Amino acid sequence: MWNCAFVSAQTVDGQPIEVLTILDGYTLECLSISADRIMSLENLIDRLFDLFVLREVPKQIVLRGVPGLVSMAVAEWLSQLP
User: Fold this and answer.
1) Which of 25, 35, 50, 66 is the most buried (most CB within 10 A)?
2) Residues 6 or more apart from 4 whose CB is under 8 A from it?
3) Residue 6 to residue 13: CA distance in whole angstroms
4) Which among 50, 47, 53, 38 is positioned nearest to 4, based on CA atoms?
5) Bridge partners (DSSP) listed for residue 2
6) pLDDT at 49
7) How many CA atoms lie within 13 A of 41 on its CB side?
8) pLDDT for 39
9) Are 22 and 82 contacting, i.e. CB atoms less than 8 angstroms apart?
């Protein structure tokens, strides 16, 4: 099981920043941390795909702090994987 979470914050100058973390739910190993001004669905899918190549596809992915439309899009993308 992997836990994916978006965290919003701001830099010292007040600019927004979003951080995407992906953790292994059992070992608590941090698999990925990404930061950008705006994290998009493409950012999330790209990070997941990279991890699928490096590791096996997890049995479950938990998305936290992710809008419902993004969750549905990720679920649709996952359902199309072989």
Assistant:
1) 66
2) 20, 21, 22, 44, 48, 61, 62, 63, 64, 66
3) 21
4) 47
5) 24, 61
6) 94
7) 12
8) 85
9) no
Question: DSSP secondary structure string, 45-81?
Answer: HHHHHHHHHHSPPPS-EEEES--HHHHHHHHHHHHT-
∠12-15-20 over CA atoms, to 5°? 95
Total-model pTM: 0.84
Quickly tell me which residue has 């190549």 as its tokens: 53
* pLDDT, average across residues 1-10: 92
Q: Note the pLDDT tens digit of each residue in 28-82.
A: 999 999 999 988 889 899 999 999 999 988 989 999 887 788 889 999 998 888 7
Nearest to 58 by CA among 33, 41, 81: 81
Place of tokens 């072989």: 82
